[in-house]
Structure prediction request, 1381 residues.
Amino acid sequence: MMTQPTLAELVLGPIQFQREIYLVLVPALALLTIFIARKSISGLGKGSRLAALIVRLLAIALIVGALAEPSIRDQSKDVGVTVIVDASRSIPIGAQEQIDNYIIQSQDGSRKPDDQLGVITVAENAYSQANVSRATSRVERQFIGGTDGTNLMSGVSLAIASAPESLANRIVLISDGNETDGSLLRAAQAAKAQGIPIDILPVEFAYADEVIVENVQVPANARVGETITLKVVINSTQPAAGRLLISQNGTLIDINPADETELGKIVELNPGRNVLSVAIEISRPGAISYDAVFEPLTGLTADGNSTGRLGDSITENNRGTAITFVESKGTVLIVADDPNEAVRFEDVLARAKVQSQRITSSQFPTSLPELASYEGVVLLNQSAYSYSEAQQELIRQYVKDTGGGLVMVGGPESFGAGGWIGSPLADALPIRLDPPQKRQMPRGALALVIHSVEIPNGVYHGKEICNAAVDALSRLDLVGIIEFQGLGGTDWVYPLSPVGDRSAVKRAIQNLTFGDMPSFDPSLQLALSGLQNAAAGQKHCIVISDGDPSLSRSLLRQFQQSGITISAVGVNPHSPTDTNTLRTMARMTGGTYYAVGNNALATLPQIFIKEAQTIRRALIWEGEAFAPARTGVPAETMRGISAVPPIEGYVVAAEREGLSLVTLRGKEEDPIAAQWQYGLGRVVTFTSDASTRWASAWVAWPGFSQFWEQHIRWTMRPSGDATLRVSTENIGEKTRVIIEAFDPDGERLNFADFRARTATPDGEGINVEVQQVGPGRYEGEFNSADAGAYVVNLQYRAPGSDGNLIEGSAQAAVTRPFADEFKALETNLPLLKQVASITGGRELPADPTLADLWSRTGLDMPVALTPAWLLFAIIGIGIFLLDVAVRRVRIDPAMIAAFVRRGATKETAKSEASTEAMRMARSRAQSRTGDDRKQQSSRKFEASPERAKSSEPVALSGEEESDKPTIGKPKKTVEKPKDEPIDSLSALRAAKKRARDDMNNNEND
Amino acid sequence: MMPKNPIPQLARAALLAITCTLGACADKPHDENAALKTTRVLGETGTQNGQFSYPRGMDIFDYNGSTHAIIVDKTARLQLMNLETGEVVGCIHTPKWDRGKPTGLTVAPSILDASTLAVYVADTHEFRVLMYELPLANSTDPQPTEPDFQFGSFGEEPGQFIYPTDVAIATNDAGEVSEVYVAEYGGNDRINHFVVDRSTEPPTMAWKSQIGVPGEEIDGSDAPIAFARPQSIELWTNPTTNQHEIVFSDASHHRIGRATLDGQLIAWYGDPLDTSPEAFKFPYGLTILEDHTALVAEFGANRISRIDLESGEVLFRYGVPGRSVGELAQPWAVGVDGDQLVILDSGNSRLQFCTPPTSLAPEYTHPMAVSSGGAP
Prediction:
């Protein structure tokens, strides 16, 4: 583990203590030991006493040291450099080559043999191109993702995350410093916290000839027939010429009526900021999006010849967009793929004098401003897979934040049977699309067989697909996932079990590895047996693969016999054979084959929703006709309707708790018609249909028009009688909404109460406080820092001049352009320098040979800590034993030497004699002291000075009998007066006293 | 930051010491599930020289007086490594890899020049076989390189390939390459037998026959030799019968087979329906040794098995799954360097050198059938 010592850690040479507080015990215990030792080992000789004391202190120091959790420090000497290369399109291609050469050349002289290099590229996203390694020696560019943006923060974050702990790390950021997403400064703070300096190598460039469309401005709302002024703000570095083209909702409009051959306007730009104005007459209601494009042309000389100079280097930044809302009186959008169904609703609305527009699902609006221009939307038998997830979210936001109305009418492709379960729109509906808990429903079982997705970001897309499929299933359905996991073989990574709240299966999806299976057989075999045993009606298997694993046809026949269908999704198959394998799989079992290339990844989740739908048929009830029961709930929508005709089918759903009202009920109390207010808008659901399929009696019913008109009108956003002129103004990261309100007589409308809400690009809504600032003038402000479209919905109530209440609503749209990769014309050097300064990094010189990339300066070299407490403890305990031995066993080098000199034989005889002598001595001693164990043991701790000075091995107790001459004073024997009572303590005291006296005598000598 | 395992109590130290002592004294029997005794690791994950990105083909051979390995990975790079020094001495890209990358490598004499060694690349997803004569160009930034010789095209006709997996080379008495065997899968699961036609310049490959048919039934009962992904092939002369044989790994049927060169089955070792832990699990790599045993890299079981080629008896199973040194992740190939087992640990993007449970003989070399291992 690599770490830096902190204040709470103590470093002594190569040892670091983690709990150094214990070390205070060392001096404390040392003093205590010395104090005790003055008496306890006073019986030893001077040298032995010192040795015993040192040994004892050492043992204490080591054992206390072990408690202080020592670790051995190993400081790294190597440096790892992660180069982050800005690979976005704003960096000229020539500069990319220079960057590669710079890194190669900078290694000479700077890089030591064990230093490491890693490479990360960054554009819209960051990708690691080479791990930090000794082997890496050059910049690589494999998959770099989209290059139309720069997220330097993601690059730095990735570099920090992948910096090896065992090295001192540096980051080298090679960029123009122009970011379109993320915050490099925030990442720099994170790098600083990790102690990783960011060195910068600014890529410097400047475009001599460049034209940029800075923005396009139109009024926020307008009326049909009005002429508005569209302003295009263009910045140019040099005088330039070009053609200005304006398109309205994607179609070019003629802004140059004088010239029949030219739709655009030829304009000449001066250096600096140019504002071009174009007058446009509004001819249709709704949201209108205007695109302005500047096409550079070669300049002309005074005599009309071409200068050959284009005046623009990057054309990607020559475009701008703005939206205006054109008031419409109550237009309802009817979405139906079967015209017969739509016609009935068109008739109903025409009779009610409500304007309507019919489209198919493929024509459904893709932007919120466009959708918000309708007062209501009617979806007839629409399935979720006809809508992208973004469009589904759009409908939800349209209702919640812009107050639009939604009427969702059923059919076999709708609601739960249409894959709407789990969709963003499901939240907005007054019914729950999962069947009721208590309801016994035939359920579906889906087995997902996952193979590797060998495309960039394949794992991410694969997980999205699985999530989409699981989302489209109902709570009761069974789902299981099989995958080839390299080390564990093929198995259920999520066993076939009820979907439930989806959390467990989604966790399993997050853990998928998308292993490259050699054969389909083990996976399909598992899926087959799992599905065969599953208690479900519809059984289906989805295989996602590139098609190259081997496949046994006999297995497919078993699927066929069991009535289990397989749909195969071929992601980038390697060859026609792979495609055939997958096609065969689908064809033989009655499933569908989908071919998906690299470019069609976004469609994959939709495929799975559609696939999941095949097992969702179980949610449809069809049977003998019955008339839905009218509930007693009073509702504006059911005014004057006491009974409705019979229906023959509907999609089963569950009642929603809360404020939803069920007005018609079917079998087992299933909701047929339900309604509620969702955010600012209102939603009605009708789970049967409005065609002869399920509601043939309705079509002929006289109340058909009344029923549907009342329901649609109830949901529609009120348009109101007042006239509001709304304009918006962007001030920094905020947008100000300015409203001029007039009553139906054209007088300024005062004291209006505004309820305003803005739908923001992140899908959330924010309330806007609107206050009156002058006669008929109101203002509000909201935060609009994120790029994208904002739709402001204004609902008002005001007292009219005649005492009537004036109420209604209006919308306005604001676009905040996305940060443009090509907006900046020069290197953002200040930002880069700030990053270097925050992190303690350097600005690298342009000459690579002078750039010391692997410089050690300013780096804290990391330290590896190996815990050593066990070592300390073992040595400490060993020394503790030695401490005992020192005081109890004397090892005399001189004697050992003598022993060696005399030879073993002689010595053995002597030793035996000595042992015999000792035995006799002990027996004599025992006869003197009696067999008193206490007395003996008490004496064990006494060492007589004579023994200490003896050159012979000594007995631990008792008197030694030896014929060898002694050195020093004649020894004294331990003798007790025979008449004295024997008491261990008194014996000990007496022995110690004698020992002290002897020692004093010796010292005096 | 605190190191791991802070001391709880001194008692733990004492217990640990006793445990260690007792543990060290225990008698350790041979454990089939034990980690490899790895002595050396070469390579790491990456795309620069000396690094691998899921290597899937390897052959070990003597070259310029020392042992070398040629390795191909999922970046479609061929790296020639000196196994003694670990140095990369040659590195090129195959010409094309959009559809997929090669999986099989065999070093043998060049078709164009019998005195030159060449590497034959089963360019799996380009439906062809490439041949590069050694040495290979060496660059830290390898470039797509056209081969010195190539053959094969996509199709199901005789001589065409879907996904070629491995090549085996036979030479004539003059040492020239005379016959080429190519295994393939993807619907064509079979072994193609080509004869080198030297009447043309350069020589061409004349299709002669095929061994095995694609397996329709999982039990393999539809033909004596019914393949499901023959991944590895080797030529061998049986010392008992003195007959030339072809040995193959039938990976998705989880078995190893032997046949005569005219396609008569001699034996299958392993059963497609056997799911016991002892059964082969996706045997991908196959290397025959001089002592008539063979090493099998089991992709699906994350281990190396050694079998007696004549009886099929399993002599050892070696390896456990994992990411640490001593563990294997989806090994695709195996070879021998001296007394060391060299395993292409594909899932971990490295070569592991380890001491085998029993001593190894050198890789098999034969004058007639020169295949993986050994210079001619």
User: Anything to note?
Assistant: Residues 100 and 125 of chain B are 5 Å apart (CA to CA).
